[in-house]
Design brief:
132 residues; 5 helices; two-stranded antiparallel ribbon; mainly alpha
Length: 132
Protein backbone atom coordinates (compact mmCIF):
# COMPACT_ATOMS: atom_id res chain seq x y z
CA UNK A 1 0.00 0.00 0.00
CA UNK A 2 2.85 2.43 0.75
CA UNK A 3 4.22 1.83 -2.76
CA UNK A 4 0.93 2.75 -4.45
CA UNK A 5 0.73 5.98 -2.44
CA UNK A 6 4.25 7.05 -3.44
CA UNK A 7 3.66 6.20 -7.08
CA UNK A 8 0.36 8.04 -7.36
CA UNK A 9 1.79 11.11 -5.63
CA UNK A 10 4.60 11.32 -8.20
CA UNK A 11 2.45 10.66 -11.26
CA UNK A 12 1.44 13.49 -13.58
CA UNK A 13 -2.21 14.34 -14.43
CA UNK A 14 -3.58 12.77 -17.58
CA UNK A 15 -6.54 13.29 -19.86
CA UNK A 16 -7.81 9.75 -19.17
CA UNK A 17 -7.75 9.12 -15.43
CA UNK A 18 -9.09 5.56 -15.25
CA UNK A 19 -8.43 3.52 -18.40
CA UNK A 20 -9.65 -0.03 -18.75
CA UNK A 21 -7.27 -2.92 -18.29
CA UNK A 22 -7.55 -3.59 -22.02
CA UNK A 23 -6.40 0.00 -22.73
CA UNK A 24 -3.35 -0.47 -20.52
CA UNK A 25 -2.03 -3.39 -22.52
CA UNK A 26 -1.07 -5.08 -19.25
CA UNK A 27 -2.16 -8.66 -19.80
CA UNK A 28 -0.50 -9.81 -16.59
CA UNK A 29 -2.46 -7.37 -14.42
CA UNK A 30 -5.70 -8.27 -16.18
CA UNK A 31 -5.09 -11.99 -15.81
CA UNK A 32 -4.16 -11.68 -12.15
CA UNK A 33 -7.22 -9.55 -11.35
CA UNK A 34 -9.48 -12.04 -13.17
CA UNK A 35 -7.94 -14.99 -11.34
CA UNK A 36 -8.62 -13.38 -7.95
CA UNK A 37 -12.29 -12.56 -8.58
CA UNK A 38 -14.75 -14.73 -6.69
CA UNK A 39 -15.82 -17.40 -6.98
CA UNK A 40 -12.32 -18.89 -6.86
CA UNK A 41 -11.26 -20.21 -10.25
CA UNK A 42 -7.71 -20.90 -9.16
CA UNK A 43 -6.37 -21.51 -5.69
CA UNK A 44 -3.23 -19.79 -4.53
CA UNK A 45 -1.13 -20.39 -1.44
CA UNK A 46 0.17 -17.17 0.01
CA UNK A 47 3.73 -16.62 1.11
CA UNK A 48 4.37 -17.22 4.83
CA UNK A 49 5.07 -13.50 5.40
CA UNK A 50 1.48 -12.72 4.34
CA UNK A 51 -0.21 -15.30 6.59
CA UNK A 52 -1.85 -13.57 9.58
CA UNK A 53 -0.09 -14.32 12.88
CA UNK A 54 -3.36 -14.81 14.73
CA UNK A 55 -7.06 -14.50 14.07
CA UNK A 56 -8.02 -12.30 17.03
CA UNK A 57 -11.51 -11.21 18.08
CA UNK A 58 -14.06 -10.85 15.29
CA UNK A 59 -14.78 -7.23 16.18
CA UNK A 60 -11.11 -6.26 15.99
CA UNK A 61 -10.65 -8.07 12.67
CA UNK A 62 -13.69 -6.33 11.19
CA UNK A 63 -12.57 -2.93 12.48
CA UNK A 64 -9.09 -3.39 10.97
CA UNK A 65 -10.60 -4.58 7.67
CA UNK A 66 -12.86 -1.53 7.51
CA UNK A 67 -9.94 0.78 8.32
CA UNK A 68 -7.83 -0.74 5.55
CA UNK A 69 -10.75 -0.49 3.11
CA UNK A 70 -11.04 3.21 3.95
CA UNK A 71 -7.31 3.66 3.32
CA UNK A 72 -7.59 1.90 -0.05
CA UNK A 73 -10.63 3.96 -0.98
CA UNK A 74 -8.77 7.18 -0.10
CA UNK A 75 -5.79 6.15 -2.25
CA UNK A 76 -7.98 5.33 -5.22
CA UNK A 77 -9.76 8.69 -4.90
CA UNK A 78 -6.44 10.52 -4.58
CA UNK A 79 -5.32 8.94 -7.86
CA UNK A 80 -8.19 10.54 -9.79
CA UNK A 81 -6.79 12.55 -12.68
CA UNK A 82 -3.38 10.87 -12.58
CA UNK A 83 -1.93 8.79 -15.39
CA UNK A 84 -2.17 5.38 -13.80
CA UNK A 85 -0.51 3.76 -16.82
CA UNK A 86 2.67 5.82 -16.49
CA UNK A 87 4.17 4.19 -13.42
CA UNK A 88 4.73 0.55 -12.68
CA UNK A 89 4.57 -1.13 -9.32
CA UNK A 90 6.38 -4.29 -8.34
CA UNK A 91 4.42 -7.25 -7.12
CA UNK A 92 4.76 -7.78 -3.36
CA UNK A 93 4.61 -11.54 -4.05
CA UNK A 94 7.11 -11.88 -6.88
CA UNK A 95 9.93 -9.38 -7.47
CA UNK A 96 10.10 -10.42 -11.15
CA UNK A 97 6.55 -9.19 -11.81
CA UNK A 98 5.34 -5.64 -12.24
CA UNK A 99 2.26 -3.90 -13.58
CA UNK A 100 0.96 -0.35 -13.83
CA UNK A 101 -0.80 1.35 -10.92
CA UNK A 102 -4.23 0.95 -12.53
CA UNK A 103 -3.73 -2.81 -12.78
CA UNK A 104 -2.47 -2.81 -9.17
CA UNK A 105 -5.70 -1.14 -8.03
CA UNK A 106 -7.77 -3.67 -10.00
CA UNK A 107 -5.80 -6.55 -8.47
CA UNK A 108 -6.24 -5.15 -4.95
CA UNK A 109 -10.00 -4.72 -5.39
CA UNK A 110 -10.43 -8.23 -6.82
CA UNK A 111 -8.36 -9.56 -3.92
CA UNK A 112 -10.60 -7.76 -1.41
CA UNK A 113 -13.76 -9.13 -3.07
CA UNK A 114 -12.27 -12.61 -2.83
CA UNK A 115 -11.64 -12.15 0.90
CA UNK A 116 -15.26 -11.05 1.39
CA UNK A 117 -16.46 -14.09 -0.57
CA UNK A 118 -14.27 -16.35 1.58
CA UNK A 119 -15.57 -14.74 4.77
CA UNK A 120 -19.18 -15.25 3.68
CA UNK A 121 -18.48 -18.91 2.97
CA UNK A 122 -16.78 -19.33 6.36
CA UNK A 123 -19.78 -17.80 8.15
CA UNK A 124 -22.21 -20.07 6.28
CA UNK A 125 -20.06 -23.13 7.03
CA UNK A 126 -19.84 -22.44 10.76
CA UNK A 127 -23.32 -21.08 11.40
CA UNK A 128 -26.00 -23.53 12.53
CA UNK A 129 -28.52 -21.62 10.39
CA UNK A 130 -26.25 -21.44 7.35
CA UNK A 131 -25.42 -17.77 7.88
CA UNK A 132 -29.03 -16.60 7.78
Amino acid sequence: MRSSRALTQRSRPAALAFPTLVDTGVALGSLLAWSLEPPARLRFRTLPTFVPRSAGPKGAILAEFERLQGDLSDRIRSASGLDLNELRIGSPFNARLSYNVYAAFCILLAHERRHLWQAERAVRATSPTGGA
